[in-house]
Design a protein that fits this description.
The structure is a single chain. By secondary structure, the protein is mainly α. It has helices at 15-18, 33-45, 51-57, 86-95, 107-116, 143-159, 162-168, and strands at 3-5, 12-14, 70-72, 79-81. The strands form 2 sheets. Strands 1-2 form a two-stranded antiparallel ribbon. The longest helix is centred in the last third of the chain and has 17 residues, at 143-159. The protein is elongated, with a radius of gyration of 17 Å.
């Protein structure tokens, strides 16, 4: 069972949970609740600005912010990052006690506080080194597949009535339904 990222690095999904044997996106009702929750949230964060860039530039100058490339944390408490600011997050997480917030609703808030106080990774902090030992063996979701997942998830959610949406206990406010 291969793990794949969809749209951004960070959250990884079991490919066979998202796609059926024909490569089509499965019905959301066939997916585990955690997968659906992450997919729905993922649809709303694609194209959003990096949190660190947003803290630097603010809403008034948001066009200067880089778009999200990496997501860490849990849905609705996630940290969205560009490649430039990923080392800052990793330094905070590894060296400044951020790991104590792993899996909690406070991860995003605590990183924002640390970063907004002017803290940064030291010059040259390596962060994560993404090494492909066998790049041909790693599954990669092409842009058209990302769009297929986005379109299919939004279509399926749009087909749910209000009671079904409430039963899923998810926040759909950021989606264009």
């Amino acid at each position: 069972m291969a793990k794949v990222s969809i749209g951004v690095r960070g959250w990884r999904f079991d490919e066979d949970v998202i796609f059926d044997a024909d490569g089509e996106v499965r019905d959301l009702t066939e997916m585990p609740e955690d997968t659906v929750h992450r997919l729905v949230r993922l649809m709303s964060i694609l194209g959003e600005p990096c949190d660190a860039c947003w803290l630097i530039h603010g809403e008034d100058d948001i066009e200067r912010a880089d778009p999200v490339e990496i997501v860490y944390g849990e849905p609705l408490a996630e940290v969205l990052l560009c490649a430039e600011h990923e080392p800052d997050f990793l330094y905070w997480f590894r060296e400044e006690g951020g790991s104590q917030h792993a899996g909690t609703a406070t991860l995003q808030e605590r990183f924002h506080e640390w970063f907004d106080d002017g803290n940064r990774a030291p010059e040259g902090y390596a962060g994560l080194e993404h090494v492909d030992e066998d790049p041909d063996a790693l599954p990669e979701i092409e842009n058209d597949r990302v769009e297929q997942v986005e379109d299919e998830v939004e279509q399926q959610i749009g087909d749910f009535d209000e009671a079904e949406r409430e039963a899923m206990d998810l926040d759909f406010d950021d989606l264009d339904l």
